[in-house]
Amino acid sequence: MFYVPKNSVHKTVSRRKFLELGGGTAAALGIGSMTVGLGTVITRTPVSAASSEDAKWRQYEGTKLVFMSENTPPSFAIRDNIKAFYDQTGIEVEIITDGLPIVQQKVGIDLRGGNSDFALSYVQDKPIGAPFADFYADLTPLLGDETLPQDPEGYGRDAWFENFLDVCGVYYDRDRLIALPYDSAVACTFYRQDLYEKYSKQFEAEYGYRLEYTKDSTWQNVLDFATFFKKLREAGEDVPYGYAQHNGNFTWTTQLDIQRMQFANGRWIDFDIDDKLGSREPGPCNWGDEQSVLIMEKFKALGDVSHPDNLANGTLELNTVYQSGQIAMQVQYHEFAASVENAETSVAAGGKTAYAPCPKGAPEWIVNGGDAVNGTNCGIGGIGINGNASEDVKRAAYIFAIWATSKNTQFDVLKGVGGTPTRKSVMDIPEVQKARTRPTEMPNALTFDAVYDFGIKDPHFVLGPKIPEANEYHNIVAAESQNCLAGRTTPQEACATIKQQIDNLNGV
Amino acid sequence: MQKSLSASRASFSAIEEDHGYAARRLDYGPGALNEEPKRRYHILLMAPAIVTLAAITIYPFFWLIYMSLHKVSVARSDRWVGLDNYARLFGDVKFTDGWLLLLKYSALCLTLEILIGVALAVILNGSRFEKVLVTVFLMPMMMSPVVAGLVWYYLYNGTFGWYHWLFQSIGILGETSILADIDTAMWGIVIVDVWQWTPLITLITLAGLKRVPQDQLEANMVDGAGSLRNFFTVSLPNIYPFLLIAILLRFMDNFRFIDHILVLTGGGPGNATRILPVYLFDVSFQFFKLGRGAAIAFTLLIVTIILGMILVRIFDDPKKQAASGGAGETTDD
Predict the structure, then answer these.
(1) Model's pTM, two decimal places?
(2) Boundaries of each ABC transmembrane type-1 domain copy (chain B) (predicted)?
(3) Is residue B206 within 8 Å of B238, Cβ to Cβ?
């Protein structure tokens, strides 16, 4: 019924395993998952530390693994290029992609149910990593294993962009590493410089300063821009809206939208914890304090002059709004530059769009005495290995993980379908350096100045909250900020109810 | 061969006598189906199906109750908490709001689907293009709910959705699209549900209308009744049992189908469309609080059963049964 190679380590499914699959998994996922589970086959040719590099790469030849990932460019690009991996290792990897909430559910059931249908999975830092960190394999013993191939550049913090390894791989303590950075989505500003130039004089006459966007532009400036464009529209002029928020049903980005504005103004964070490490017991949250209420008021003010579909615009929808020319500015994740620069689908292509860091805090909006910074948040997707898998499956999966995050693969991804690198050395490739200015064949590289040279560095970088209840946290913040934007609650009420729900969530 | 058959018959007779069956030889006359050997034989044949059904319904049911009495979350430490999961639901605003939204959503969907479905069935019944039109009307029902949700998601889209443009053009909507407005999002979902499931009501009602005795209709017309009076005095009592089935089916579907909502709004904006089953899904598979999710699921199950029984009791009123001219017996079978 199933193909089982002669040198297979697990030639049959044990009775115990079969019952586990039948009882636990089938109840949770249905019979379909059984076929996925049985689809994993592991074969092994033992090697020693002194074996050749080729032998180390090929020690699991004949193995089949399943990788569950988000439907983002790196996954598609690696799937397109998977033959190169197969040729090098003889390992077949089936890459299944879906939307992040679905990946979170499927991977969560697999990990939490004690199964290993997905030997490899996408570890988006907060939605997947924070709740399931304990169920992933610790990569540290594999990183130093001389019987496995290793990346010549290594895996230390310096090999990746600032903070990336901590963001996706480290949770609650620094003893374990559960993922290697694989994909990044970092916020930056996309704006229509053609429109800004066109209306600059008109704007200056009214507001007393030029309609231009720089790294020093503040959220107050953004509010002014949005108000200006909305007034023009109401006066009957054919202009787009000035700004739009992410406030759709993709709660993860909806939560990030208010978070970056909160952080920019005084470096406010949700909990008094190490933002990059996270905490299992974060204690009382800071929602409801004077600073958070003030920024919620400003967030509502900005929402009132933004695109009218704010409450339906998730990340993808917002980008469609921008591509269709309905807004002049968005704070978006840098991987979307490739779609914005596609002349066939975007009216904002052809040099009309400029990329810059996220808006800076406005000094007059800061009441907690903190700094005004360009609050930049992100989602760093790592590639992790299922802790329930057998040691051989973990080792075979590791070979794929280091290949997928290697310099050459990341360069291919960037060049191919517009991925976003996580390894620093990709920047040293002359083609990439050249691609950072127009005309370019790698449109995402146009964002690199704003993102890699500026936004991801401290003090601008904000991550949190890495807590086990991260998904419920997102849900609460998203729903209550939506209620506030819709006028159902005041900013004070919204912040108070967020605090009450989150403290209750964390047992405070 | 002949010899072998004779031997078999002899052997069979011996077995019958051994088991005392000989006095009750099976025949195929009236009442034969009630005989005990036949019943045992039937039970034996049904046993695999009964065992399978038990395995996939009874086992999960007791597992659900077990989980609802434990803290089962993403942490490895599952532990007994007694009725704590249930007690906490009373202080959970999303749980109580979820119930209110679910009742509102079900009432809206059910009312509209019954009214439109019956009206369509009456119009279609006996019309010249009945078969063609019924086929056309049934098409939405054949679509997967997720696909239907996606189609409407794009039709409602504020940037390129055709329905958004239409609703705006005729002044029903302002600039904000239907799913982006906290006050209209529920209506957006109700419209999709009505579009997809009204045909089911139409189909069932049509089946009922075909069984309305023509002589009653004609006699009523001779007495001077118009079409409307004819419908209320003759057709409606006759299709009553069919409507009961339709209402029960849709009522239970609305209590468990969340596909449209997950695709269209995910429960938002705010919590405007987070009906209880959506909240249950969130708690179980987004927040991975399986113990709390099991408690919500169990309360949902119990309330659904109770409401279902109340509905049956209301619609199974003997007076109404009598008014339906005995057609109600169909449901008792």
Answers:
(1) 0.86
(2) 99-311
(3) no
